[in-house]
Design brief:
231 residues, alpha+beta, 2 domains, 6 helices, 27% strand, globular, transmembrane helix, membrane, transmembrane
């Protein structure tokens, strides 16, 4: 069997790691507005646009089931909305009253993608929200919220992270798990790094992720998800 020498292997590892990072960066870039525009000009469509709703729901349920805990959540914070109860029409009306522009999208399931959302409208504060995605199940009730803040300064990233993490801590107590440097010190120093705070219950999952990536700079993502459909 062909084997690489230890010296050659040591030379290859940095290259493999670099290639992996570049691949991750490229995939991420393709999902940015700039990346999607370039792909559209090349005639390359996003396969998610035509995927069956049952496939999307199955994927979502499988992903959430991997995060779920064993006990019910004492509360299910969702930026002032109610998971499994707030309807697509209610969310759209709420955004419309505040003159927030939202696009209704169908990518297997139904989504509202809103931009220019004032943080105060979400019952919080902090830097401007880049994008806010509402996901709705087959009954058109709210399944999940994804909030993105991208390309931030160090001060904005720290502020966004602190607000999101403290809001969850005040409502639910200590997180069920964390990963990475949740002080964000090393995150800000490294070109590629991720920190995460996770709340996992049988009926609810909340995740706050801070990342430093080549294609997106400093970003903070907040996820609030119903886990009822994953049971």
């Amino acid at each position: 069997m062909f084997q690489l020498s230890a010296a050659r292997t040591s030379r290859l590892i940095p290259g493999i790691a670099a290639a992996t990072c570049l691949s991750v960066a490229a995939i991420g870039w393709m999902h940015t507005p700039q990346g999607r525009q370039v792909l559209a000009k090349l005639g390359v469509g996003c396969p998610v646009n035509s995927i069956d709703s049952h496939v999307v729901l199955s994927i979502q349920q499988n992903a959430i089931s991997r995060e779920r805990g064993l006990t019910a959540a004492p509360d299910r914070p969702a930026l002032g909305l109610q998971l499994d109860r707030s309807t697509e029409a209610e969310v759209a009306e709420k955004m419309g009253r505040e003159n927030v522009h939202c696009d209704a999208l169908s990518r297997g399931l139904h989504y509202l993608r809103c931009r220019g959302v004032p943080a105060q409208l979400l019952g919080t504060n902090g830097p401007p929200v880049s994008e806010l995605w509402f996901s709705f199940g087959p009954a058109h009730t709210l399944m999940a919220i994804n909030l993105y803040r991208r390309n931030m300064t160090e001060t904005e990233a720290r502020q966004s992270w602190k607000i999101a993490v403290e809001n969850l801590r005040n409502a639910l107590g200590l997180p069920t798990s964390t990963s990475g440097d949740t002080s964000l010190t090393s995150l800000l120093e490294k070109p590629v790094a991720v920190a995460r705070v996770n709340y996992a219950y049988s009926d609810y999952v909340a995740i706050v992720t801070a990342s430093h990536m080549p294609y997106g700079g400093l970003a903070v993502r907040e996820q609030y998800m119903s886990a009822n459909s994953a049971q």
